[in-house]
Amino acid sequence: MKSFKEIYRSSENKIAGIGAAPGIIIGEAYLYTKEKLQISKADIDDIEKAKTDLTEAIAKSKKELNKIFAVAREKMDEVRAAIFEAQLMILDDPILLNEIQRRIATERKSPEYIVDDEISKYQSKMILSHEAYMKERALDIEDIKQRIIRNLQKKRWESKIDHNVIVISETLTPADTILLSRNKVLAFVTDHGGLTSHAAIISRSLNIPAVVGTHNSTSQIQDGDEIIVDGFYGYIITKPTTEQKDFFIEKRRRLLELQKELEGLKDEKAITKDGKEIFIYANVDVSGEIDMVVTSGASGIGLYRSEQILNELGEFPSEDEQTKIYTKLSSRIYPNSITIRVFDIGGDKFRFLDFEEPNPFLGLRGIRLLLENPALLKKQVRAILKASTNKNIKLMLPMVSTIKEVRESNKIIEECKQELRKEKIKFDEDIEIGIMIEVPSAAVMARDFAKETDFLSIGTNDLIQYLMAVDRGNDLVSELYQEFSPVVVRTLKHIIDEAKKAKKPVSLCGEMAADTLAMPLLVGLGIETLSMSPSTVPYAKRIIRSCEYKKMKKLADKCNLLHTEEEVKAAIEKFFTDNKITRTRQII
Ligand code: PEP
Ligand code: MG
After folding, report:
1. What's the pLDDT score for residue 534?
2. pLDDT, position 257
């Protein structure tokens, strides 16, 4: 049988991108477009027909939303699902509906024009509001407006995904990804985005294969086309030949076989051949994932990206709502532990500011934004503390770049503790507070930072982007986003060594932890705890269990002296060959 390389070399019907979530899928393409619909302002003669069309479009929209609401209630908490309930209520608003009907009759314009104009009026008022909550609601209303207009135009709509499809889109926001994943989505393909864009991370955590950064798949692929998505190598095959199809059907069969074998590793520890145990934790991005963690064989949750709640909810939950969410998580994962990272807002995540920042990744993001809005941080910290009575929660601060930020945050956390003591509310008095090391300034002074906190967790996704000055989500510069750059190797070694000197634990929770190629290097550098998407936990165990720590350390020492990414990669690949360890791609 041919190899992947040979198949791709001889294929003209391929589109190259970045393999963002592993897996092989053969299926039907579905072009997902969020383009604004063209609105016709045409005059109408038949008012009764226009009114009937409107009633039908509203009924259809309601049916669609009811379906989404039901799925949301099943997959998300009640609180989060409520956003769809609110949308449904708008469709029942008699004042709005009567006004639209009245205007159709008096102005004699197409219903889509009146719907657009009337609903837009509400939106403009909301967008002008200074409250972030109202602005977010304006977005919900946009969603409803588009839904009604789309139904008036009898066009295909996202929620109509009723059979298995591969979603092709220019870009996907984290919220799009979550929402679409509730439908029957086999895989994602996007024109833009890089390996560590949050949409890519979510695909990986939901175990949905994805290829991102294809530049032009939306113009090359037609709705309904049969395509093959290879999330390992990052290729799309359009309209495959019989030979290509047979090749990928066989690869898929072998992949499923391997996955079955990996299931057997679930309850095994990640111990190297010479007896060193590595602790594998899982990252959680979406609520539905928590069950996957429990069954993945992970030792707990090493990173809970709490800002994901905002993406799902579209707003800031109250202290009580947050307490409920965190308590549920803590109980579900008990007796294992969960590290809750406070909201990392900004960058490409949840929008909070009223204005566009020129450089959002270098702007008001993570702890910077929270310290500017201490009420927000306090509410979340109080909720986390209140949920900590099982003593299995740790709290973590994102995007820390100065010692002052750590001290200010610790002061706020202390204030929250004092308040709770006064209010006679119980919490874990010994709760550990740690920080993410994902900014070069924190990496350079890792030992000093470690002394101010209980633990460090290295976020390679951001650390690499800031070290290499390359946007993690921009496919134009993805060549420079080098996980295996010697500067990354040396920086990791420095952080790990410095944390050890301060006698503080250090873990790694960026996507690099899930890259099986990086595994021997990371373990060799002295990392003892890794946190990764739940679906990759067994793959990591398999690699660790087939290596000797002694040899991995030697490999890391060698990589530490190299000068280019190519040299580091070549050294690691040689390590795999010399030790006869196969990676997934080589097995299938
Ligand atoms: C990281 O930067 O590596 C990280 C884990 O945080 P996030 O991907 O959420 O920015
Ligand atoms: Mg980060």
Report:
1. 84
2. 85
Closest by Cα among 359, 377, 358 to 369 = 377
What pLDDT is stored for residue 316 in this prediction? 87
Ranges assigned E (strand) in 8-117: 14-16, 18-21, 24-31
Bridge partner list, 30:
167
State how far the Cα of 221 lies from the Cα of 166, in Å rounded to an integer: 11
Q: Which helix (H) or strand (E) holds 114?
A: helix 111-128
> Which element (helix H / strand E) includes 87?
helix 78-91
Q: What is the four-CA torsion angle of 370, 372, 378, 383, rounded to 10 degrees?
A: -20
- The strand pairing partners of 304, in sequence order, are 284, 340
Is residue 144 pLDDT above 90, yes or no?
Answer: no
Cα of 37 vs centre of ligand 2, distance in Å, is 35
Rounded distance, CA 399 to CA 389, Å? Answer: 27
Average pLDDT, integer, range 177-194: 83
Mean pLDDT across the chain: 88
* Predicted model pTM: 0.71
The owner of tokens 């549920």 is: 328
Mean pLDDT of 359-368: 92
CB 437 within 8 A of CB 449: yes
Percent of the chain with pLDDT over 90: 59
- What is the four-CA torsion angle of 40, 46, 52, 57, rounded to 10 degrees? -10
Is 70 exceeded by the pLDDT of residue 156? no
List, chain by chain if needed, residues with CB within 6 Å of any ligand 1 atom. Answer: 303, 305, 344, 438, 459-462, 509-510
Phi, psi for residue 167 in degrees, rounded to 5 = -85, 125
214 exposure class (CB count in 10 Å sphere: 0-12, 13-18, 19+): buried
Ligand nearest to the CA of 461: 1
d(CA 445, CA 499): 10
Q: What does the pLDDT look like over 158-176, one tens digit per residue?
A: 546 778 999 999 877 655 6
Give the closest residue (by CA) to ligand 1 atom 1: 459
Query: Would you state the torsion angle of the CA atoms of residues 97, 100, 106, 108, taken in this order, to the nearest 10 degrees?
Result: -130
Ligand 1 nearest atom to the CA of residue 465, by list position: 2
Nearest CA among 228, 61, 80, 69 for reference residue 160: 61
Please state the three-class secondary structure of 336-388 as a single string: CEEEEECCCCCCCCCCCCCCCCCCHHHCCCCHHHHHHCHHHHHHHHHHHHHHH
pLDDT of residue 181: 77
Model confidence pLDDT, tens digit, residues 388-431: 999 999 999 999 999 999 999 999 999 999 999 999 999 999 99
Interval between CA 460 and ligand 2 midpoint (Å): 7
Pairing of strands 210-212, 18-21: antiparallel
pLDDT tens track for 481-518 = 999 999 999 999 999 999 999 999 999 999 899 888 99
Nearest to 498 by CA among 552, 561, 443: 443
Q: At what angle do helices 374-386 and 319-333 cross, to 10 degrees?
A: 40
Torsional sign, CA 178, 182, 187, 192:
negative
Question: Tokens 């967790």 map to which residue?
Answer: 457
Q: Which two tokens stand for residue 14?
A: 């391929």
* CA gap 81, 68 in Å, rounded: 9
